[in-house]
């Protein structure tokens, strides 16, 4: 198992991609600490993982609250002896579907501010714990608009680019302490219900069917398809494992070739 004896904290574990990553980490031997603002879904996920033979614990944590983040990490570190992996996958309420010239300043800036706040708080707090043992992996996730122009994507792509920049800066500062920082860039997984619904909305705006809209996006990728959620989670497992021990400051391209680096 690639993550055996690793302690992984996953923020936003109750979400669609967060829960998929949590299951993949647990399958590969990690002890997963599921953090989310709403307790019920992560408790249910913890029970599911435990029934399947994994190790999981749930805690109500607001990943925009510095005190809550640091208190939770201190408890995890005290219980386990250290934190090996931190992955922030919380959802941010980006407004998309209209050009920047028609957006208000608030609808443009607030999601960027929230994205950077939560990433800064969780990554730096985890790094302070990881530095004590001289190792660790910090993961983040972005999407195609962080690199490519996507019409009417609002501030989403701008926030993605900022997260990737934060990861590069952290990687440079934390590398001498044995901490790796990796960002995964996905093209979006249409097998997840929320993204599927978002595709439907964009298709309606474009005047095409949901299936035609997805097919048009897939056609622009090198593999002529979009990544499944499980494929993104598997990439996260690999990046968090010792098989990727020489990788840091990298944006792992999980877009099926939607972006070229």
Write the layout of secondary structure elements.
Layout lengths: L6 E5 L4 H12 L3 E6 L2 H13 L3 E6 L5 H15 L4 E4 L16 H29 L2 E8 L12 H19 L4 E8 L6 H14 L3 H10 L9 H12 L9 E5 L7
Parallel strand pairs: 1-2, 1-4, 2-3, 4-5, 5-6, 6-7
CA-based shape: globular
Largest sheet report: 7 strands, parallel
The name of the CATH superfamily of the largest domain reads NAD(P)-binding Rossmann-like Domain
- H/E element string? EHEHEHEHEHEHHHE
The CATH class of the largest domain: Alpha Beta
Could you say what the CATH topology of the largest domain is called? Rossmann fold
Indicate the low-confidence ranges by residue numbers: none
Counted by DSSP, the helix tally is: 8
What is the CA-atom radius of gyration, in angstroms?
18 Å
Query: How many discrete domains?
Result: 2
Q: Which sequence of strands runs across the widest sheet? A: 3-2-1-4-5-6-7
Mean pLDDT: 95
Structural class: alpha/beta
Total strand count, please? 7
Strand content: 15-25%
CATH architecture of the largest domain: 3-Layer(aba) Sandwich
N-C termini distance: 30 Å
Estimate the helix proportion, in percent: 40-55%
Which properties best describe this structure?
261 residues; alpha/beta; Rossmann fold; 7-stranded parallel sheet; 8 helices; 7 strands; 48% helix
Describe the structure.
This protein has 261 residues and is an alpha/beta fold. The chain folds into 2 domains: 7-188 and 229-253, NAD(P)-binding Rossmann-like Domain (Rossmann fold), CATH 3.40.50; 190-226. Helices cover 48% and strands 16% of the residues. It is globular and about 55 Å long. The two termini are 30 Å apart.
